[in-house]
Design brief:
single chain; about 130 residues; mainly alpha; 2 domains; two-stranded antiparallel ribbon; 7 helices; 2 strands; about 5% strand
């Protein structure tokens, strides 16, 4: 657990009635996500905006769509590129692809960012 996560954990312990619960249970009671989930949510929102064309100049060729059209959950699968293993977690597109491909179809096919955000919160509750 990194330092910021430890601070959040200690702060949630200070709330009366929650001090006996585990960190995950305290977050659930307060309706909060862990820092890891918040980072993932931000990354997925950015990926959505890249794919919907919000960043046309910078976003070209950031992601490549998987070639198969028969998918079970999400009809907008992304293909994971090849990267050296040691820098794999640091690269945005590699970090996002696995989680993006696990999102349900109704989340990734939303037309607006606001609708995507709302459905993403629900999907992340079950995803990670």
């Amino acid at each position: 657990m990194e330092l910021l996560e430890q601070v959040q954990s200690r702060a949630t312990k200070m709330i009366r009635g929650l001090e006996h619960l585990s960190y995950e249970d305290r977050l659930r009671e307060l309706g909060l996500f862990s820092l890891e989930k918040r980072r993932l949510r931000r990354d997925l929102r950015e990926a959505f905006q890249y794919l919907k064309g919000a960043y046309r100049k910078d976003g070209e060729n950031v992601f490549s769509k998987a070639c198969c059209v028969r998918t079970r959950s999400n009809g907008f699968k992304l293909k994971e590129g090849r990267v050296r293993q040691d820098i794999r977690k640091k690269i945005f597109m590699i970090r996002v692809v696995k989680h993006w491909n696990r999102l349900p179809r109704e989340v990734v096919e939303d037309p607006s960012v606001e609708a995507f955000k709302a459905r993403l919160v629900v999907a992340l509750s079950n995803l990670v």
